Amino acid sequence: MESNGATADTHRGIDWPAHGGNPFDSALPWPGLLYWAHEQPSRVFPADRVPSADELHRAIPMGYTTLSLMARIALCHGGQQRRLWPEENRPTPRGPLQPYQLLLPATDTRRHLRLGASWPVRFALRDAEELSARTGGAVLVCQVLEFHNWH
Q1: How far apart are CA 32 and CA 12, in angstroms?
Q2: Is the full-model pTM beyond 0.85?
Q3: Which of 77, 104, 74, 101 shows the shortest CA–CA distance to 12?
Q4: What is the pLDDT of residues 47-102, one digit of tens each?
Q5: Where are the alpha helices (DSSP H) in the chain?
Q6: CA–CA gap between residue 129 and residue 132 (Å, rounded)
Q7: How far apart are the first and last CA of the chain?
């Protein structure tokens, strides 16, 4: 059971890659990577299993959107960090997004939400704790690794 009350099976987003996990599942033993496109996350997958370009094009249809590859950094709930994964020393891409992004899960009545966060990472973590305290829900902290126009 996840800290936000959802199980790993309740992923509401791009249902890919197969056997991937719910990005908001704190029980996954690895931090993992995920894609963000069409205002929703993909399933999370281990960093050593980055899909091929052909598979990515088949799984996430191109359209007037952007595609971001992100690494999970931390999961907060109720104003506290529930899980902090070790941050690897990755270069931050240059682009229109802030290096750290906060993701809020979709509900029955609300869509996913992605918000830029302050940096360095300690400020992004502080923002996530504050946001999760105010909403009472889960907030996932991610680092942007790649950003592409996807159309």
Answers
A1: 17
A2: yes
A3: 104
A4: 888 888 888 888 888 888 888 999 999 999 999 999 998 877 676 666 778 899 99
A5: 53-59, 121-135
A6: 5
A7: 37
